[in-house]
Amino acid sequence: MATDQRRRRADAERNAETVLAATRDLLAAGTVPTMSEVAAAASITRMTLYAHFATREALLEAVVRRAVAETDEALTALGLDALDVDEALDRLVRTSWPKLDSHRKVRLAALDHLGQAALRDQHDAAFRHVEQLIARGQEDGAFRTDLSRDWLVATFYAVLHAAADEVDAGRLTSDAAPQILVATLRSLLHAR
Asked: CATH fold of 65-189, please?
C-alpha cells in the first residue's frame, strides 16, 4: 500500500513539473496560455491540471516561484560574502541577468495577471542576496548610506527590470545589458 502511495505521489510530482515546464515554455513563446493549452502542452488532462493548479493565477504563481527559486540557487552558489563588494556586485548582476532575461515573458505575464504586489512578494528569496550585499557595502563604507537599504534594494531591482523592459522594446540587446547594468548600479550604490 505504501509503495502505491509513493508511486502516485511521484507521478503527481512529475505531472506538476511537466505542467510548470510547459507553462514556462508557452510563456517564453510570448503567449499567456489558457488552462486547456497548458494541459495539451503537458500531455495531461484538464482534470489532472486542475488537481494541481486550481486557477491560472495559481499556476502563474507557481511558475514565478520556480523561476525565483532557480535564481536563488544560482546566487547562493556564488558565495558572494567571500568577495569584495564590487566583485560581488559584478557577479550578482552577471548571474542574475541571464535568469531574468530568460524569464522576461514570465515576468510580463505575472505582472498582467497577478499584479506588481504579488510579483514583488514572490521575489523575497532572491532579494536577500541583494540586501545582504548592500548591507555589507554600507557597513564597509563602499556603498552610500545617505539612502536607506530598502530604497537601494528596490532601486537595484527597478534598474534590472528596466533593462528587461528595454530588451523587450528592442532598445537594448540582452548581451549588452550586464555591462550597462553593472556600470549603472555601481554609480547608484557607491558612496560619493
From this structure: Tetracycline Repressor; domain 2 (1.10.357)
